[in-house]
Amino acid sequence: MNKVTDDLHHASQDCGSCPIRHRAVCARCDSDELERLEEIKYYRSFEAGQTVIWSGDRMDFVGSVVSGIASLTQTMEDGRTQMVGLLLPSDFVGRPGRLSAAYDVVATTDLVMCCFRKKPFEAMMLETPHIAQRLLEMTLDELDAAREWMLVLGRKTAREKIASLLSIIARRDASLKLNGTQGPLVFDLPLTREAMADYLGLTLETVSRQMSALKRDGVIRLEGKRHVTIPDFTRLMTEAGDDNDGGMMA
Description:
250 residues; Arc Repressor Mutant, subunit A; four-stranded antiparallel sheet
């Protein structure tokens, strides 16, 4: 685990200082409920490229991404693979009531997860409406995001795909920092160009070319390959083919 991830890992041991507290499945829990969750939670860290769980494996935990990004991948019988989703900070991993994992979950970057032992968590869901209601909201948000992403992959141009992905990451980063999307948005892009290409169904060359074009046109500013500034979020959304109220994976 690198120093930044290690520091975040130790800071997140306290629910009160957890960076995803206001967005996670425990967002509405009171102090007594948080104490119950403390009894069944633990943290796991993964290095970039490490598999969190394989499709079909028995899952004895559920949990939330605290920091980093993971990919959801499905493998076909002939060995071909398709990335079908990304898990960003505060996203939930696993499904209560399902014994096995539906997808391969792989750490795209260094990853820290707050995990709950599955059986006690399922029991607590039945007794704690706050958790069940919040998980339902998160599930519906994920469904909306999946439908929106079908549009991105199926109908949008390469430039619109890149702009859409940048808007998703920028909006989530702003939400975690409790910031709005007014004014410049500054964040470190957590994905390599190769990972972006894989997720968007583009070539590496196309991703690099479109990132350069967005930079040249003033839609984004880049320092190196990862440090991104979005001067005007509305313009980015226009480039993505969406209005500023679009809601993918906020």
